[in-house]
Amino acid sequence: MEKFIWAFIVGGGICVVGQISMDVFKLTPAHTMSGLVVLGAIFGGLGLYEPLVKFAGAGASVPISSFGNSLVSGAMMEYERNGIIGVLTGIFEVTSAGISSAIIFGFIAALIFKPKG
C-alpha cells in the first residue's frame, strides 16, 4: 500500500511542476512537455531517475519525464557497446516500440472514429 502512495505523490509532484510552469511562467503545453522531457533526460544522465523509478514505480515511469530518461538510458547503453555512433542508434532503439505503437494505434483510431471538426 505504501508503494501506491509514493507513486501518487511522485507522479503528482511531476504534474505539479508541469502545471506551475504553465500557470506561473506562462509556458505553453508544448514547452512544458519539452521541459519535462529534458528534465527527465538530465536526471537520467546524472543517474538520479532510475532510483526514483525503483522508489515510486509508475509514479515516475508513466509521466513524460520518463521518456527523456529512456532516451538518455538508451544512448548511454549503446555508447558503451558501439562508441559514439551508439549515441544516435541507442536513442531510436529504446524508444522505437513506444513511438511505433502510438503511431499505429493513432492511425487505427483515426480510421475507426470520426473526428469532430
Q: In a few lines, what is going on in this structure?
A:
The protein has 117 residues and is mostly helical. It has six helices and no strands. It has one domain.
Note the main attributes of this structure.
mainly alpha, membrane, transmembrane helix, SpoVA, Stage V sporulation protein AE
Report what the structure shows.
This is Stage V sporulation protein AE. Keywords: Membrane, Transmembrane, Transmembrane helix. The chain crosses the membrane at residues 6-25, 32-49, 84-113. This protein is an all-alpha fold. The chain has one domain (2-112). Helix content is 83%, strand content 0%. Helix 1 (2-23) crosses helix 2 (29-45), helix 2 packs across helix 5 and helix 5 packs across helix 6.
When the domains are counted, the total is 1
Overall geometry comes to globular
| Strand residue content | under 5%
* Number of beta strands: 0
Give start-end ranges of low-pLDDT stretches.
none
Oligomer: single chain
Structural class: mainly alpha
| Average predicted confidence as pLDDT | 92
Largest sheet descriptor = none
Order of helices and strands: HHHHHH
Q: Which bin fits the share of residues in helices?
A: over 70%
Compute the number of helices: 6
Distance between the termini: 44 Å
Radius of gyration: 16 Å
Organism: Anaerovirgula multivorans
InterPro entries: Spore_V_AE (IPR014204), SpoVA (IPR005562)
Keywords: Membrane, Transmembrane, Transmembrane helix
Transmembrane segments: 6-25, 32-49, 84-113
Which secondary structure elements does this structure contain, and how are they paired or packed?
Layout lengths: L1 H22 L5 H17 L3 H8 L1 H4 L3 H18 L2 H28 L5
Helix pairs in contact: 1-2, 2-5, 5-6
